[in-house]
Amino acid sequence: MGKNTSPQRRTRQQPVLLRFFAALSRFLAGAWHAFRDGDASVKLSALIWGASCFRRRQFFKGVLLCLEQLVFIALIVILSPDLIKLGSLGEVQAQRVYDPVTRRNVWNDYDNSFLILLFGVICLFLLALMIIQWLRNLRHARQTELMARKGRHIPTFAEDAANYFGRKFHRTLLTLPTLGVVCFTIIPLLVMIAIAFTNYDRNHLVPTNLFTWVGLTNFRSLVSMTSSSSFAYAFRNVLAWTLIWAVLASLSCYIIGILMAMLISHRDTRGKRFWRTCFTVAMAVPQFVSLLLVRNLFADVGIVNTLCKSCGITDWLHNIGAIPTANVIPFLTHPAWAKPMILLINIWVGVPYQMLIATGILMNIPGELLEAARIDGANAWQSFRNITMPYILFITGPSLVNSIVSNINNFNVIWLLSRDVYTTSDQLMAAAGATEVDLLVTWLYRLTQDQSNYKMASVIGILVFIVCAALTLTAFSRLTRGDREGAFQ
Fold it and tell me: Does 3 reside within a domain?
């Protein structure tokens, strides 16, 4: 049975990159064969996109293709000066020069490295898009020629337009969202990746200064400790805490949420609506309000420290060596206390949401399964381990993966609890602009907002993406492996 795998299934099992390059090679080969085997109008369409359409009397479509080609050429010509300067990112430094006409000091015609990078990337993207569209037009022109030779009906413009509001209406609907993703996601992402290979920092801020390409220097700073850079030390510590935080924060909320849902849903629990309402009300309060309130409660001068001092808890903790001084308990100001405290606060914030999800799943577990297990002599723990938990994990597996990835990028909890409260005592961490409780995403924010170190922030952004992508692909490949859905039907 394992050897008789269908070609489609074998294709899906191939690595993503291998499938991509295979599809790309087929696309390029198809365009080349279309140009080689096509008639004169097909070959001419390699120079004038609408030539083949004019030959087949598709005049309106030919005009649109020619206009599309002119728009591409016009945009590339407009952006070509920035593309030419993309290799150096500018050479003319900004400075004030004396203008004898106005008798004033004015800015010279300087280069802006960031605009050169931005418009250069856009120009490269347009060039790639133009090449893809050029090759598609060649393939389509060849297909139209073959249809004409076989005497088949060639769709008119009205028929094509009606098709895009009928069978291909999904493409019409996706046009604007695709443009939005390209303009506001893909191009900024490409620019951010490019910045990681430059020296764009506070010493090279635009427009008064220029920045240049430095290759892999910034990436080496994260893996090699030098006397002038402590980023490698900070990166190891921040990455380790980020991964520990993501796993513990996700699993703690996940497990406790399920247990709370089972406790409230138990037949012997009274006041189910009351308990669910309490958790729902906790979710209704905006998270930043809750976190700021908790931060003030556990601050060094907060009410919790005041009560602990009055009750003698602070002195007792100092006597056993748990805190450095007998004045306050450093809930959010010492790494040994701040990290566990942040995890506990995150449990308080995240459990209600997970509990409501688990409640809905528990209500949909087939009662026949649990009843059959009880008749067979299974106790409560065996039913939970073999029926309830596998069912919940099957349903919430993708959500759990999403929770781990979201916690890697959980900016709110860490930032709101540590901002203006936590000060690192580690000089190497401070030199890199990080603290012991920072995640990669909050460290990235500090680098951009506090230190204007955009080059290292871009490097960290790339690494965050790699970590999240690797974790997501690995987890989902395991979750979707095999026919697990049939076990719960």
Answer: no
Domain-located, residue 186: yes
Task: Looking at the structure, tell me whether residues 170 and 237 fall in a common domain.
Answer: no
Task: Find out whether the peptide bond into 100 is cis, omega within 30 degrees of 0.
Answer: no
Q: Output the CA angle 311-315-317, nearest 5 degrees.
A: 105
One domain, residues 262 and 188: no
Based on C-alpha coordinates, what's the Rg of the chain?
Answer: 31
d(CA 241, CA 278): 32
- Domain carrying residue 383: 225-488
Question: Are 208 and 233 found together in one domain?
Answer: no
Tens digits of per-residue pLDDT, 451-489? Answer: 888 999 999 989 888 888 888 877 776 665 554 544 554
- Say whether both 279 and 130 belong to one domain: no
Tell me the pTM. 0.79
The structure tokens listed for 125 are 């993207």
**Do 432 and 426 meet the contact criterion of CB atoms below 8 Å apart?**
no
Amino acid at 479: L
Q: 208-213: which pairs have CB atoms within 8 A and are 24 or more residues apart?
A: 208/94, 209/93, 209/94, 209/113, 210/89, 210/90, 210/91, 210/93, 210/111, 210/113, 211/89, 211/113, 211/114, 211/455, 212/88, 212/89, 212/113, 213/87, 213/89
In degrees, to the nearest 5, what angle opens at C-alpha 452 toward C-alphas 449 and 454?
105
How many Å from the N-terminal Cα to the C-terminal Cα in the chain? 23
DSSP letter (8 states) at residue 227: T
| 3-class DSSP assignment, residue 319 | helix
* Predicted local distance difference test score (pLDDT) of residue 227: 59
Query: In the chain, which residues have pLDDT < 50?
Result: 1-3, 11, 483, 485-486, 489
β 104-107/96-99 pair status: antiparallel
